[in-house]
Amino acid sequence: MRISVDAIMGGALTEVGDRAGAEARTIVLMDEETFRAFYDRTARSVWAYLARMTNDRQLADDLLQETYYKFYRAGAHYENETHRRNALFCIATNLARDASRRRRHVELVPLPEHDEFTADDHTASRAANRTDLARAMERLNPRQREMLWLAYAQGASHEEIAQILGVKAASIKQLLFRARRKLAALLRRSHA
Amino acid sequence: MTCPRESEILDALMTARWPEACEDELRAHAQSCALCADLVLVATAITNDVPEAHVPTSGVAWWRMQRRDREEAARAASRTITIVQASSILAAIAVVLTILGGVSAMSESWRNGIAHGLQLLNSLPQWGLPLLLTLALVLAAAPVALYFAVRD
Ligand SMILES: [Zn+2]
User: What is the pLDDT of residue A37?
Assistant: First the structure.
């Protein structure tokens, strides 16, 4: 399922009236200074999200560029930083889903981090935990993975998650609860 | 489905205060409450899994985006140019065929001398004149369309 950024932002903007809604649809491309500041604030977390949703660091590099390009070309005006950020993550989510669909057969086992080649006890145990998590995450559906990552890696609120994933805000609590319970059970099983 | 202490624990987890900087009582709760135990297990696993990002600088990202913009514009322009070129070639062929048709039709009148050249138009097939005018219009419009296509 693709999430419509316009629908999300349009929905958010109805709160501030039609005039602002009309403004939101005016295409004004970001200037360099604004773009660079926004990129500096967000790129690392978007990349981490893409890397974990696709489980492919190189693909995350490409999708990062694509995410910002699509965001930039959309040229929308956002009410505030949160909406802007949500729109960005919404684009990233769509791209990650498309990429994952294109390579369904790829096994979701994490690629080693650069620093894990020096396998002392600490890094070895981190790598093992990461593998456990990756394997457990693989058993969830994409929306559950996205939801959990947004909630616990990005610290996104229920409302933000709803906007990013195009899910009704009222359902988030329950969906997140189910996803969390399932992941916790899988992690316990893999630790046992 | 929810525990009233979840938000407290989540806040501690998100601000890296969990577990050391939290009260014993909250830690004990997390051990005894199934919901909070799930929260701690999942949130800890995920926050420990955030990969170190090596992203291009914002300057590089901006430059790549501008380059991509130019490439997309060039691609769009070349598509338009191809369409305009194809239309122009077809128009030129049609003009030549029409003229040839006209010439052969009026070969009879050529014998009567150039003074009767005006008969040329009468000797064209009935559809020839409108077609000729349309093609002339297309040929005249093609450079204008080309200009708008490559302007950006
Ligand atoms: Zn609890």
Answer: 96
Instruction: Look at residue B56 and tell me if it is in a domain.
Output: no
Alpha helix ranges (H) inside A80-168: 81-102, 121-138, 142-152, 158-165
Give pLDDT tens digits for B76-132: 888 888 888 888 899 999 988 988 887 777 766 666 666 666 666 666 666 777 787
Q: Do the chains contact at B42 and A130, CB–CB below 8 Å?
A: no
From the options 1.10.1740.10, 3.90.1200.10, 3.10.290.10, 3.40.50.720, give the CATH code of A1-109. Answer: 1.10.1740.10
CATH 1.20.1250.20 fits A115-192, yes or no: no
Q: Tokens 């140019």 identify what position? A: B81
**Are B135 and B84 part of one and the same domain?**
yes
Going by C-alpha positions, the residue among A142, A129, A140, A44 that lies closest to residue A85 is: A44
- Which of A45, A41, A84, A83 is closest to A64 using CA atoms? A45
Ligand 1 (single-atom ion) residues, CB below 5 Å: B 3, 5, 33, 35-36
- Tell me which chain A residue has its CA closest to the CA of residue B39: A180
Residue B85 and residue B40 share a domain: no
Looking at this predicted complex, what is its ipTM? 0.78
Which stretches of chain A sit within 8 Å of chain B by CB? 32, 35-37, 39-40, 43-45, 47-48, 51-52, 57, 61, 64-65, 68-69, 72-73, 113-115, 126, 129-130, 132-134, 148-149, 152-153, 155, 173-174, 177, 180-181, 183-184, 187-188
Query: Range with the lowest mean pLDDT among A13-22, A27-36, A51-60, B67-76?
Result: A13-22
pTM of the model: 0.71
Consecutive H or E run containing A72:
helix A57-74
